[in-house]
Structures are given as structure tokens and as C-alpha cells.
Amino acid sequence: MPRPLPRLLSGVETLLRFFDLGSVSRWVFFAALIGVAAGLAGVGFEWMLHRSKDFLLQHPLHLSGEGLGVLDHRVWLVLAIPTLGGLVCGVLTQRFAPEAEGHGTDNVVRAFHRLRGKVRGRVIFLKALTSAITIGTGGSAGQEGPVAQVGSGVGSSLADALKLSHRDRRIFLLSGASAGIGAMFCSPLGGALFMPEVLYRKAEFEGEAIIPCIIASIIAYTTYTQITGVDQSVPIDPELLASLTFDPRHLAIYLVLAVACTLLGWVWVRTFYGVHGLFQRMSAVPPVLRPALGGLLLGLTAIAITPIAGDQGVFFGGYGLMLAAIRGSLTVQVLLVLVFAKILATSFSISSGGSGGVFAPSLAIGAVLGALVGEGAQALFPALGVNPASFALVGMGGFFAGVAKVPVAAVIMVCEMTGSYALLAPLMLVSVLHMMLSKRWSLYEAQVSGLVQSPAHAGDFVVDVLADMKVSDIIEGTREPHCVHHFMTLRRVLDYVADAKESYFPVVDDDDHLVGIFSLTDLRRIYRENVVEDMVIVRDFMIEGVITATMDDDLHVVLRRLTKHSINTIPIVEGEGGERRVIALLERNEIGRAYDRRLAELRADDAG
């Protein structure tokens, strides 16, 4: 980045601080800047996708959708093109940036928790290129992961240019990823909430990042829609949209859909990572060739289902499959074939080392499953007037909410993508139930259980708890100090400490004022010298610069002193200067026990 730009950005930051806009508000300018950059990146990525799909697969095979339609003399290209695409993708990722392989969202989550929000600048272009190649050659992958990683790279690079802290880089990372998703999926609010929510398996958000993510997502969405003219990623006919309504009589069927989402979600996650593990164990196949093998298996899958699925298939992200499921143009037999074929095709495309996202394929799988449940309910209960299109749309959001652990973002994104809020109630129901029933698995391995388990928040909760506790709160549980007079001889000291349980001994003068301290380690050091026990006194081996604490110090400060000076016990004193008197000795373990007790009390209060 040119040098004048960081100076300009730093000047803007100084101006915002001058007006005292607050710790979050001062990032408004930078979030907007990230939004513009991510929106433009989304436009560029969309252009690359369209060109690659048309040039690499659709034109050579004369395809108009996601399926082959019929098998003819060009069937060999169905095997060759995805294989060559996988080979190119493998060469690029293994040679330049291995983190660009797989589904990008997981890499963003990992960068937040484990890598201090750091994304290498080369990933911005390389992830877009490899994903365009994977999807363009027929890969069953979506744009969510790539655009999230591209956007996160923009945010991380900006933070590095400004020389910001790790904490701020993480916020920029999430802002960029949310901006990219909000733009390409035409879902400004859903995109803004997706990244702060997808970090954790529990229903938690990265609260500090929500406002910057909202601003970045809105600006990116505006930039993207103004340039492309697209404002809805899953366009539904107005007549069909009007028919999507919630009938309370169908509540039990939606409960069945939630259970079906849970079962198929388990199959989807296990298959995805089972295939990944299988490719990892192929020691005879170099990593650079594995995406090519995945492309070959994708082509075989597409050929195998063509006699049944016809024009519908498993290529690309699955938007055609979503629309077909919502419009009710697929038979039950075709739906059954496609739901499992899409799982296999996506696993072959991404788990082998290809590059792409799992968001769109998951929505497609959920839409097909919802249509299946809707068609079944319509056949079994014709009097209820079941509309399979409603169940297809609810299946989209409900399925992804559980496998990705994003119940809030998934509901909002599906509503924004389709332009329908009529099914908000069943969407929330299925999403929440699916998440509750699927706590033991997730599509994103880099997720952590909650804020406490995130390395990004290591120490935050210890500081919050200990900073509110004073030494005086726990002093009653500490041992009384065994003070030693500074003129006591070594012989008497040895007799004195023989029966003591402490390891540290404060040294006092005639007025009981603290003048030093020694430990058993200091005594052991004396034995290396030739000394006379009656000639050596405590003042000869004590440490004069004593690290102390007072009753009013908070435990976080005390713990920092212990850690900084590599000691395990600290004297608690009253008075100042040379007239300090020792009240007690506080051990590091006692602070740990106080922390555990306080946490237990807080949890008990929450449970109550």
C-alpha cells in the first residue's frame, strides 16, 4: 500500500479520536472503507465467476443450467474439464498459498481465533482465482467462502497498513468478510451478522464486531448492487412469492422437517469430513493432484445422475437447484437422487483440496430436503393444503442454520435472499430446533464452543473477574506470615524453617518493619559456600527489594506482579516506605482458587 494512504488514514483516525467518538464509533470510517473495497472485490469476483463458467464449462458442453440434460459424444469433457480445473487449482494453492484451498469461511474463523486476524495479502487474489477455476469447471461450491476470505484479506491488509493491534485486526477481518458476504448474497443484515455468529458453536456473537460489520456490509451491498444492478440473489416469481404463507396447521410438519434437517445434517457433515480424511490418507497421491481426482469423481457423479435428473444436476453452487425445489418442478425421485448427489459432489469438489464455499450447496441441500418433506406431506395429507415451496424455503435456512451454527444469520439471510419474510416463524422454529439437536457436529471445524474457549479472548475473563476482587476479599483464607528478624543467625533460621510450611519468609527489623525476604531456594544457595552457621545472619542472604501488595490492590494487579517477577508468593503489607508491616502472605494458588470460587458464584447466579 502506498505510503501516503496510511498517513491519510492515520490522520482520519486522529480526527475521530479528537471528537471522542468512542472505541467502536471511531472505526466507522474504516468500516465504510472496507465495505467499498469488499464490494468492488465482490464485483470483480462475480465477473470472474461468470466468465470462467461460460468459457470453461457451459460453452464447451452447451449447458444452460447445473445439469447435463442428455449424454452425448461430449461426455468425455464432463470428466476432463473438472479434472483439469482441479489440477490447476491444486498447483496454485500448493505452490503459493495452501490456506486458499477448502471452504474459505473456516479459514477466516481459524485466522480470527488462532492467527490474530492475520490473512496474507496474496490470498485476496489467489482465493478468488482458484475458486473461480473450481466453480467455473463445474465444482459444486459456492461463493460465500471465497468472498468471505477475500473480504477478510482486505480488512486484514488494511489493519496491517495502519499498524493496528491484534484486536483491531480481528475486527477488520470480520468486517471485510461480512462485507463480502453481504454484497454477493444481497443480504446486508444477514451478512453483517454471519461472521460474528459463525465464530462460535454456541448461540453467541462477537459483540464488539457487530457495528463495524453492519457498516461494512451495508456499504459493500450498496456498492455491489449499484454496479451490477442485482439486488436479489434468489429471484422468485411474484405469484409464487405471494403463495408462501405460514399455516399454523402445518406446525407439526415443520417439526418433522427440523428432525429431517438434523439427520441429513449429520450425514452431510460426516460425509464432507469423511471424504476430506480419505483424501488426506492418500499418501500415494501428491496433494497437488488430489483436487484433480476430486474433479474426476465430480464428473462421474454428474454422469451417473443424468438419466434420472436430466437438466438438474450438481454443478456450481446450486442456485438453480434451489429455484427448482421452490418452484416444485422436481419429482420425488429426482429430489431423492439430488439431495445425496449434491452432498457427494460438494465433498468431492472441496474436501479434495478444491477451493469454494459450502454456504450455497448447503442451502441447495436444505431446499431439496424441504421440498421432499413438503411433497410427502402433500401426498399424505391433501386436505391440509400443504405448499411444498414453503417447506423448500424453510429447509434452506433451517438446514444451514444447524450445520453452520448460525440460527440468527441464516434466517435473516434466506429472507433477504428470497425477498420473503412470510415464513419467518417456521424458519426460526426449524433453525433453532436443528441447532439444539446438532450440538455435537458442525460444518466449520475451526469454530470454538464459546467466547471463553477462544484464544482471541485468552485472559479477558480472568482480568474481568480478578479486577473486581481486592486482596482484602480473600486475605482471611491466607496463612499468617512467619517473619524472621534480620539479625537471626543461619543456625537459628534452619531450626525455624524446619517446622514451617511456607517457602517464603519476610524479614523484619526491631520495629517489625519489612526490610527483605528470603525463600528456601536462597537457603540452598548458602550451602554452596564455605560458611559458619553461627556467623551468617539473615541480612547476608535476604533479598532487599521486596515485591509487595496492599489490601486495596485488585487481584489482577497482584497476579501480574507475581508473573512479571517469576515469584509464587507476595507479602501483603500496610504502611509506606520503610515502615511497611507484613500482614499476610498471598500465594499464586490462592488467587487461582479465588478465581474458581468467583466463577462458580457467577455461574450459580446465571443459573438462578
Features:
608 residues; mainly alpha; Clc chloride channel; CBS-domain; 3 domains; three-stranded mixed sheet; two-stranded antiparallel ribbon; 24 helices; 5 strands; 61% helix; elongated
Average pLDDT works out at 86
- Please give the CATH architecture of the largest domain: Orthogonal Bundle
Helix content: 55-70%
Let me know the largest β-sheet.
3 strands, mixed
Description:
This protein has three domains: 4-228, Clc chloride channel, CATH 1.10.3080.10; 238-455, Clc chloride channel; 461-598, CBS-domain (Roll), CATH 3.10.580.10. It has helices at 4-18, 28-61, 75-96, 104-114, 122-136, 144-161, 166-184, 188-198, 210-228, 238-243, 251-280, 290-309, 319-327, 332-351, 359-380, 388-404, 407-418, 424-437, 460-467, 471-474, 490-498, 520-526, 555-564, 588-607; strands spanning 484-485, 504-508, 514-519, 569-574, 581-587. α16 packs antiparallel against α17. The chain is mainly α. It starts with a helix and ends with a helix. The strands form two sheets. The chain has a three-stranded mixed beta sheet. A two-stranded antiparallel sheet has the order 4-5.
